[in-house]
Amino acid sequence: MSQDYCKDRVLAALKEKLPPLFCRRRVEELTGGLLTVCNLIKLDKEGLGPQSFKMGRKVGYEKESFLLWLEQRLAPRGKQEL
What we know:
Layout (H helix, E strand, L loop, with lengths): L2 H15 L3 E3 L3 H4 L6 H9 L7 E3 L2 E5 H11 L9
Helix pairs in contact: 1-4
């Protein structure tokens, strides 16, 4: 199975599963543990996280921009760390 095929399947599954908007606290649940709140906080502080917005004290993501960001980060095993 090629890495591109696997990447496409992951993105397709998330495209179906993710709501149009979601908060950072739900990312671990929605991605099956691939990303955690701590991962995203660290990436946001480094300027490497997905495009986000704030509503009060919560950080949220829009599905399409999150998927574009994730697509750029998905790489063959051993090539890049999430």
